[in-house]
Design goal:
heterodimer; A: about 160 residues; alpha+beta; two-stranded parallel ribbon; 7 helices; B: 19 strands; about 20% helix; globular
Chain lengths: ~160, ~425
């Protein structure tokens, strides 16, 4: 989804301020916002030129994902749901996105990662792994479960669940 | 049998003996009487009725202005950000030399008020009303004053020229007819800021004609801000002739007035001439904006772009007619035209008519026109990041037009445009 005519900074500031208002906090003015955004972008190793570009316009797949991470960073959610965030990413972009997520990990914030591949989990070490089948969690474990799935596939879980 | 238009003989009788232009004015008035007002049958006036002007036969000439304290304080506030610019100030169509200032253009440009020329050097005023349309002929008969400016060869103005047209409360029921000449010498450069501002809420009929000439290598940027009063009926017609390697750039921001008709006619008459036209029309209430562009490529290797965006709410209306004409000899022409309208209310309406007349075969021409509403997908994207619906709508509307202001290089003007756009958006999304 690209939004021509609206710069990333304008968009992000509006989103951040809407959230702050909802939480009863003071809105950030342009200078405060820029300071905050620049700090966060530095940590994510993002070029600050990003801010002046229109939202997602002409962004590559990797840039879009990185932009999503920045949005998440700015909006500071309690729960982040990353649905197949690894799809369509090359190795470098995957690494960047993962590093971004890792930076945001904290005891006050939970993440649910949805993925079909173990590869993402080499970069983001999960605390828990759940296998979802037909809308139900059929098996849970720690990160070793993901590795087991990678080598054995899903059939054994399907069989176990059928019993 | 020829029919003759009878409209405000009194106005005419006051003007006919005004200065040394009696012959010219009489010819023009005859032409006006023979041509009359444009009718809805004429293609270019199909969507803009002129009945509120043609039926109102008691417009008077504005009296010499007597600015009161309110006007003076308003002017001071408005002009403060432009204190370093050269300034030409008109109140109710009268040139105000006491508060104008051309010192910053000394040695760069020569100026005279048209009124003074009409008295002392009438031969410098050349108008051929023979082919003129009704409004142009009327203007040629009735014009009371205007800007006559010549930028000298090789002279490059270091500051912009602000031309400020103000209507105070005494202007109700008047008609302001002005005629302007701007000629750019060889390799000269100038930025003109043209601002129409008003206190008057009652009807004022303004009729401006601009003749613009660019000699070889000259460059003129014209930024026009039409912020007329709520009762204004405003017509502006600009004819620009571009010679070799000259450049004419303009950005029109249509914001005020009840009805605003803006005609821009460009003749690209030299190789490598370049014309970039852009405009924003932001309409609310019952405002009506009509922009008509003729881009005439008469010679090979010239280029032109047009980029216009309208934003309409309430029951506002916009009309756009854009014709790109490429004559048979104008090979290697590069011409682009884009016109987009965003309607943010049920009752807003836009009529857009792009037109290409291409008689050469080796050219690059494109045109695009679109009329649409706010995209639900974009709104969803913004809402999904926590932005409320109302804010999201306003953001999208603002983003639709605001980026056109990026071409404004003079910061105080850009700021003025941006803040006025936000005020307009406040009205549209309250």
């Amino acid at each position: 989804m690209d939004i021509p005519g609206i710069s990333n900074s304008y968009f992000l500031r509006a989103a951040v301020n809407e959230k702050r208002l909802a939480n009863g906090e003071k809105e950030l003015d342009a200078a405060e916002f820029l300071k905050l955004a620049r700090e966060k972008m530095k940590a994510l190793e993002m070029d600050s030129a990003f801010l002046s570009r229109p939202v997602n316009e002409g962004f590559s797949g990797g840039e879009k994902k990185r932009n999503e991470i920045l949005q998440m960073d700015m909006l500071e959610p309690k729960l982040g749901l990353l649905d197949e965030t690894d799809s369509g990413l090359d190795i470098d972009a995957l690494k960047t996105v993962s590093e971004g997520v890792n930076l945001l990990r904290s005891p006050e914030r939970a993440f649910v990662l949805v993925t079909h591949y173990q590869r993402l989990l080499s970069y983001i070490q999960p605390d828990f792994v759940h296998v979802l089948m037909d809308g139900k969690i059929v098996k849970s474990g720690d990160k070793s479960l993901a590795l087991e799935l990678e080598s054995k596939g899903y059939d054994w879980i399907r069989e176990a669940a059928a019993k | 049998m020829e029919t003759k238009t009878i409209w405000n003989e009194k106005l005419w009788s006051e003007v006919r003996e005004l200065d040394a232009l009696k012959e010219l004015r009489s010819k023009a008035w005859e032409r006006f009487e023979a041509t009359g007002f444009p009718s809805l049958k004429s293609e270019s006036w199909r969507y803009t009725p002129v009945s509120s002007i043609s039926a109102m036969t008691d417009f008077v000439r504005p009296a010499s202005p007597k600015p009161n304290a309110k006007t003076i304080s308003h002017l001071q506030t408005q002009l403060q950000p432009f204190r370093d610019c050269a300034r030409l100030i008109f109140i109710n169509g009268w040139f105000m030399p006491q508060i104008s200032d051309l010192k910053p253009l000394e040695g760069t440009a020569d100026f005279s008020s048209v009124k003074e020329l009409a008295v002392h050097r009438p031969n410098t005023i050349q108008i051929d009303p023979e082919q003129a349309g009704g409004f142009a002929a009327m203007n040629a008969a009735l014009f009371q004053d205007g800007v006559w400016l010549h930028v000298r060869d090789e002279a490059r103005a270091s500051v912009p020229l602000l031309v400020y047209f103000f209507q105070d409360e005494d202007s109700s029921g008047t008609t302001v007819q002005l005629r302007h000449w701007i000629s750019m010498g060889k390799n000269s450069a100038l930025t003109v800021l043209e601002w129409h501002d008003s206190f008057s809420a009652k009807k004022v009929f303004s009729n401006h004609e601009f003749q613009i000439q660019l000699a070889q290598g000259a460059s003129l940027s014209q930024y026009r801000f039409q912020d007329g009063g709520t009762g204004d009926w405003l017509r502006s017609s600009s004819h620009a002739r571009l010679n070799e390697a000259s450049r004419y750039q303009r950005l029109d921001f249509e914001c005020g007035a009840q009805v605003s008709r803006n005609e821009i006619s460009i003749l690209l008459n030299g190789a490598d001439a370049k014309c970039d036209l852009s405009g924003i029309a932001a309409g609310a209430g019952e405002q009506h904006f009509d922009t008509q562009v003729l881009m005439d490529h008469a010679v090979p290797k010239a280029s032109s772009t047009q980029s216009y965006r309208n934003l309409l709410g309430g029951s506002a209306r916009s009309v756009f007619g854009g014709c790109v004409k490429v004559r048979p000899e104008a090979q290697k022409t590069d011409a682009q035209q884009v016109h987009k309208t965003l309607l943010v209310s049920k009752d807003a309406r836009a009529d857009t008519k792009p037109q290409l007349e291409i008689d050469a075969d080796d050219v690059k021409c494109s045109h695009g026109a679109a009329i649409g509403q706010l995209s639900e997908d974009s709104l969803f994207y913004l809402q999904s990041r926590g932005i409320g619906r109302a804010v999201a709508e306003r953001m999208l509307a603002s983003g639709f037009v605001e980026h056109l202001l990026e071409s404004v290089t003079f910061e105080p003007w850009k700021k003025l445009m941006q803040s006025r756009l936000q005020v307009k958006l406040d009205g549209l999304f309250q």
